[in-house]
Design goal:
Layout: H1 2-10, H2 15-28, H3 33-56, H4 61-73, H5 78-95, E1 105-109, H6 116-123, H7 127-133, E2 146-150, E3 154-159, E4 164-169, E5 172-178, E6 181-182, E7 191-199, E8 203-205, E9 208-210, E10 222-226, E11 236-238, E12 249-251, E13 255-256, H8 259-268, E14 274-278
Parallel strand pairs: 3-14, 6-12, 11-13
Antiparallel strand pairs: 1-2, 3-4, 4-5, 7-10, 7-14, 8-9, 10-11
Helix pairs in contact: 1-2, 1-3, 2-3, 2-4, 3-4, 4-5, 7-8
Length: 279
Amino acid sequence: ADRERLEHALAQGDETHVAIELLALARSHPGSPIAQAAGERLQRLAKAALERAQAARGSDEAAERAALTIAYLATLEPESRKVLRARLEQLTRTEIFSRKRSVECEEYKVVPGDSLSRIAKRFRFPVDGIMHVNHMRRTLIRVGQRLKIPRGPFEVLVIKGEYRLIALQDGKWLAEFPIGTGRDDSTPEATFEITEKTKNPTWYAPDGVYPYGHPKNILGTRWLGFNDTEEHAGFGIHGTARPESIGRSESSGCVRMRNEDVEVLYGLIPTGSRVRILP
């Protein structure tokens, strides 16, 4: 069974997802032979990716970002990842969140009859995300305006034991946030899809229904709901009225974020995106 899990991890279609699957094995079975084998594979993957990133530095930022993402995910020690994360933040600011043209993004020229919501639907990227990437404060657009729109697919990786959430764009590091998780290990380690997104959500609690703004509403300013499965139902990512709980296991099982962070994530992750939760 261990060999089958390892072979499955190595059979993923790209190195980013190979790294994620190996990371899942290493974290799910600490101290076991399968974890040791996965760790050794991760070390080799990280070393090769770092060599590619170094070769691309200064000449191909997209290639450097792709390689650093693999190295980042293949590095098990949180402290060792900090330097990599700092460089990934720099690259992402330039490639995605600046006005500079990028091979990572579509460039769209606004035509008569366009609206931001229509453009968002066409490119399957949220209105809030288009505004964030293009430094827009209002939804008003003008004919001839050029908009930068990141290419997907988009996904979310949650590492419970480190209280971290990583957003990925086309297999590359996009953003990262601290989170809170469920008490008594109630946040499920599984793969989901985001099927619902709501601003200022209502909390349907076991003891009643509480609209946004009610003192008993725990969901904060955004809700990104997961699909229900045979084993898990009612889970999602949301904000919080208790920011001091971030970095702790105090929720009822959902992934909890600071409101300002979940608002950014809400804009970057479209409905239909995959969510993978690791130990």
